[in-house]
């Protein structure tokens, strides 16, 4: 009886002294939801010019440049993307368009001007490379939060440390990943992907965050593949939010006749 | 020479001192052994600065290529071959296990379950990029679907899936070739746990080379001691006295320990070639002692005093022993002129070992004999009074009479045999293939055979095409790609190449899939932009990096991965010729430089150097030995005479190799120096004794009679000891060991026969010129 009483007392004291922060503690699910929105859903729509440097193990660098248009249908939900290639010159005019859904496979289109051809593209998963870089498709458009089980494993200084464990391990090339999420703006600063031998195989890093129209915005991000030794640096330029894009732009019609007004 | 004679006297005077020095030195050099570093990589047959090696490593780095272990899975029982759910399940399982082996570059592993596929979607105009086999299929329909997709992909068909669907392959890239034996053993362990219908095979040049190294060192520990044991037993049979017979064995052991100890202590790595030193040194080290024992055995009874007997024997044999050792040493030292580093070291150290053996023979053997009790020798030796001659002696005497009376017949037969041999030499086939260093029943040979029947080929070579103009991104140019396509067709039509893969194949595959999957569009699109956009589409796959194995990121250099069905150097050389001819007949649309890399190609380079190097080394040492003989006999004619049996032996042995169709490969090439050094020995002994006897008798008939007593006995005993001693090598599981064993036997028997038949026959015919009047040549001797 005495022991129970002292336990209760101890519990009460703990609650009392930690009371103020206790109310603000977020669950892992809440953190990743906020992070997802901070990283992929800033504004209602937006545009950025992306410069991509793909560097291989020997230090050879290839550059690509494209403009990305994005429209949120529902914040945290479906989105539409339009990616227009500007460089290298021989792929200029190539368009990659995505209608992203949460409850089914995305619709993707590819327009190749050199072949004068529009293709519907399907993929068994979203772990394929984005434009030959070390970013995978999911890094650019976001990974469905329901695909993983999230655990808050650490809460240190200015970051939350979240471990994501895939519910269907056979569909991805990693065993789990650990994200460091900035407590202030909820932008993931570092995500490490591990294999089943607890070895890091891939790292995503946010190198620079700037303020654009009041939104914390990723300016520079790096993906490193530790297995191939390659890395890709993405630089977001001319970022603008809420420019008035509408769904009309994200249709097959505009694949062959790019909406130059939005692409400048 | 006086100093050496004094040394012999010193040895008989202070035997214990000599024996303790020999033992102390053996301990000192023996202590170096633990420092051993082993190197089993045939690539090191070339200097590290060799162009082809540097280029090979640049190409590997530039295109992210690795040496492969090839694991083959064959299912002959299922009607759909490996394409049934059970087998595919095992392939997925094995692939995952292999990925986790230390030293495997799992990211670059090529297997059905690690490759991406492009195919038509369910609705028209839809293209699907997906893993070919992310997980094992659940039913046979899904299994067959994977087969059809893999066979439809030019990057996979013939590489990881066989034409008939009976077999699949896993290409296991490894960090270092020297790890391949260990990794292959690990894979074997995993495979053992499976108990399905399928068979598993492991091969590839790195495994063959590394396994050979491992088994070679194992053989070293079996064959060399076994040869030693048999030599010991035969000597025991001839000389009866076991305590005496130990002495040549000690000389052989000590010279091997001194040589290997010095080599290891000096920090040289023990390469495959160098591991052969003991087996080469043993017979050479024993030969001189056998002469001594044979002579001692024959003469002991005359003296009945071991000191007098040994001094007499050493006096008789000192010059021939010195010269036979010098000639053998010269034969091996000439290998220093080959452009192949391990062969240089091998040659120089064997030469050193031979001189060590000689030094031991003239010091240790007399000292050892002095340490035996005189009484223990009471029953030893050939009794002078014993007129009961055995069959062996009778045969020898008959041989002597025969070669004198039938000299013309002998010479005619010899000329006939040599003519046939020379014809045989013209038929010699210069070729090598490390896989063939294993006997046909070896796992690696079987795996090699099976997998090359099913697939495009397990031997890899890389043809690198490099634009002279480095700014045009030439490998996006449709004209250039079409030229590459044509070159690949030419490769296939040569019959030596089973499969080749290039950037052109990727472009064609993506192009026709994007256009709706119609094979009519399986071609290079006609504009540079179209090519670039096909490649951009491909880059959206799971493995975009696969592109950079075939082309550099700046598109100025391309790599054609060529799979050969055979690792024979001849076949590789033929492929190089086909490419060169093609380029002359079909100049590329832009200026291109070509270069070759890959283990199969590298082997051809060192082989060529080896053959050329050996030829000049052989020629050089032939001249050196000839000069030595002229000095020894102080006569040009006698020098020439001495070269006859060895020339006949070399011509006969190489003629035989040409006639039976054995390839002139690395071991055969190296053995030429041994042939030269050893086969002159008997002639030196024989002619030296001829001179001495003739000086005494001044009568050829009488000389000949004497020659076919002790001298002929020593020669034939020697030949038998070594020839029989090396028979265990003939049953070794490694072909180069068989070759060495065969050579040793042939050298001994043929040069003994050549010496005992040809020399008396020639001397009988030309005795006028040879013993011209009183001018009996005197041998420099300081007795």
Quick summary:
By secondary structure, chain A is α+β, with helices and mostly antiparallel strands. Chain A is built from five helices and 13 strands.
For the record, what CATH class of chain A applies?
Mainly Beta
Question: Approximately what portion of the residues of chain A adopt beta-strand conformation?
Answer: 35-45%
Which shape of chain B, going by the Cα principal axes? elongated
Beta-strand residue fraction of chain B = 5-15%
The succession of helices and strands of chain A, N to C, reads HHEEEEEEHEEEEEEEHH
Low-confidence regions of chain B: 773-783
Helix segment tally of chain B: 25
Average pLDDT number of chain B: 87
Structural class of chain A: alpha+beta
Structural domains of chain A: how many: 1
Number of helices of chain A: 5
For the termini of chain B, the CA-CA separation is: 9 Å
Per CATH, the architecture of chain A is: Clam
What is the radius of gyration of chain A computed over CA atoms, rounded to a whole number of angstroms? Answer: 21 Å
Portion of residues in helices of chain B? 55-70%
Oligomer classification: heterodimer
């Amino acid at each position: 009886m005495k022991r129970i009483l002292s336990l209760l007392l101890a519990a009460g004291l703990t609650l009392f002294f930690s009371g103020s922060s206790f109310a603000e503690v977020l669950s892992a699910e809440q953190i990743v939801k906020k992070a997802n929105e901070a990283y992929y859903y800033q504004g209602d729509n937006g545009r950025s010019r992306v410069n991509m440097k793909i560097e291989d193990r020997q230090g050879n660098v290839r550059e690509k440049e494209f403009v990305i248009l994005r429209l949120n249908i529902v914040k945290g939900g479906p989105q539409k993307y339009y990616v227009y290639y500007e460089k290298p010159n021989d792929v200029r005019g190539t368009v990659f368009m995505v209608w992203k859904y949460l409850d089914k496979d995305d619709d993707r289109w590819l327009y190749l001007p050199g072949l004068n051809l529009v293709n519907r593209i399907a993929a068994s998963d979203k772990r394929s490379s984005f434009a030959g870089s070390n970013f995978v498709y999911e890094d650019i458009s976001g990974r469905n939060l329901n695909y993983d089980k999230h655990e808050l494993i650490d809460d240190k200084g200015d970051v939350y440390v979240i471990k994501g464990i895939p519910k269907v391990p056979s569909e991805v090339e990693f065993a789990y990943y650990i994200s460091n999420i900035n407590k202030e703006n909820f932008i993931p600063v570092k995500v490490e992907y591990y294999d089943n031998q607890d070895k890091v195989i891939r790292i995503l890093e946010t190198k620079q965050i700037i303020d654009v129209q009041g939104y914390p915005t990723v300016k520079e991000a790096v993906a490193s593949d530790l297995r191939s030794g390659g890395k890709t640096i993405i630089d977001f330029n001319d970022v603008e939010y809420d420019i008035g894009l509408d769904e009309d732009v994200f249709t097959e019609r505009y694949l062959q006749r790019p909406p130059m007004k939005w692409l400048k | 020479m006086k100093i050496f004679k004094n040394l012999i006297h010193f040895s008989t005077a202070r035997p214990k001192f000599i024996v303790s020095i020999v033992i102390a030195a053996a301990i000192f050099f023996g202590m170096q052994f633990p420092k051993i570093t082993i190197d089993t990589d045939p690539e090191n047959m070339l200097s590290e600065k060799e162009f082809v090696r540097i280029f090979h490593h640049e190409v590997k780095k530039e295109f992210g290529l690795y040496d492969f272990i090839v694991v083959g899975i064959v299912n002959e029982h299922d009607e759909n071959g490996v394409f049934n759910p059970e087998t595919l399940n095992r392939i997925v399982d094995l692939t995952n296990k292999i990925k986790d082996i230390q030293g495997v570059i799992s990211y670059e592993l090529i297997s059905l379950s690690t490759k991406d596929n492009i195919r038509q979607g369910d609705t028209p105009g839809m293209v699907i990029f997906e893993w070919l086999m992310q997980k094992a299929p659940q039913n046979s329909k899904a299994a067959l679907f994977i087969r059809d997709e893999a066979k439809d992909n030019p990057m996979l068909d013939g590489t990881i899936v066989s034409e008939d669907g009976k077999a699949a392959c896993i290409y296991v890239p490894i960090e270092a070739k020297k790890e391949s034996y260990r990794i292959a053993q690990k894979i074997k362990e995993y495979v053992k746990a499976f108990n399905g219908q399928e068979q598993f095979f492991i091969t590839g040049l790195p495994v063959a080379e590394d396994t050979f190294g491992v088994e070679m060192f194992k053989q070293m520990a079996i064959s060399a001691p076994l040869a030693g044991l048999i030599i010991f037993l035969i000597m025991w049979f001839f000389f009866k006295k076991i305590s005496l017979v130990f002495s040549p064995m000690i000389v052989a052991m000590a010279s091997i320990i001194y040589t290997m100890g010095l080599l290891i202590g000096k920090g040289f790595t023990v390469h495959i070639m160098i591991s052969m030193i003991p087996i080469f040194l043993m017979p050479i080290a024993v030969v001189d002692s056998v002469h001594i024992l044979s002579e001692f055995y024959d003469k002991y009874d005359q003296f009945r005093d071991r000191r007098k007997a040994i001094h007499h024997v050493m006096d008789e044999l000192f010059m021939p022993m010195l010269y036979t050792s010098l000639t053998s040493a010269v034969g091996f030292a000439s290998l220093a002129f080959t452009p192949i580093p391990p062969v240089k070291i091998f040659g120089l150290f064997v030469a050193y070992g031979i001189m060590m053996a000689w030094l031991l023979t003239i010091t240790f053997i007399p000292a050892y004999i002095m340490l035996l009790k005189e009484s223990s020798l009471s029953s030893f030796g050939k009794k002078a009074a014993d007129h009961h001659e055995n069959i062996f002696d009778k045969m020898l005497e008959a041989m002597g009479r025969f070669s004198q009376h039938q000299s013309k017949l002998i010479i005619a037969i010899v000329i006939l045999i040599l003519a046939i041999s020379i014809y045989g030499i013209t038929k010699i086939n210069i070729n090598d293939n490390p896989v063939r260093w294993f006997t046909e029943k070896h796992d690696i040979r079987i795996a090699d055979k099976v997998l090359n029947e099913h697939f495009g080929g397990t031997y890899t070579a890389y043809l690198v095409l490099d634009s002279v103009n480095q700014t045009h991104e030439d490998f996006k140019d449709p004209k250039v790609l079409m030229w590459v396509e044509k070159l690949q067709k030419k490769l296939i039509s040569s019959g030596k190449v089973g499969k080749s893969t290039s950037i052109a194949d990727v472009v064609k595959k993506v192009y026709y899939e994007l256009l709706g999957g119609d094979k009519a569009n399986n071609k290079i699109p006609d504009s540079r932009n179209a090519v670039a956009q096909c490649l951009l589409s491909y880059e959206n796959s799971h493995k975009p990096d696969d592109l950079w194995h075939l082309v550099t990121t700046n598109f100025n250099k391309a790599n054609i991965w060529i799979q050969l069905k055979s690792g024979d150097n001849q076949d590789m050389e033929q492929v190089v010729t086909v490419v060169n001819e093609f380029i002359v007949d079909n100049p590329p649309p832009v200026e291109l430089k070509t270069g070759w890399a890959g283990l199969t190609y590298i082997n051809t380079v060192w082989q060529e150097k080896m053959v050329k190097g050996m030829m000049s080394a052989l020629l050089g040492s032939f001249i050196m030995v000839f000069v030595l003989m002229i000095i020894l006999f102080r006569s040009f004619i006698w020098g020439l005479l001495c070269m006859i049996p060895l020339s006949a032996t070399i011509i006969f042995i190489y003629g035989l190799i040409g006639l039976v169709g054995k390839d002139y490969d690395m071991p055969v090439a190296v053995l030429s120096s041994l042939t030269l050094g050893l086969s002159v020995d008997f002639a030196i002994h024989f002619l030296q004794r001829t001179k001495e006897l003739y000086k005494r008798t001044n009568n050829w008939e009488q000389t000949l009679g004497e020659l076919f007593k002790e001298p002929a006995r020593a020669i034939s005993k020697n030949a038998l000891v070594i020839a029989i001693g090396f028979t265990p090598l003939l049953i070794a599981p490694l072909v180069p060991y068989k070759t060495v064993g065969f050579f040793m036997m042939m050298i001994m028997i043929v040069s003994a026969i050549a010496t005992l038949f040809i020399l008396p026959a020639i001397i009988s015919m030309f005795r006028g010129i040879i013993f011209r009047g009183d001018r009996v040549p005197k041998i420099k001797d300081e007795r």
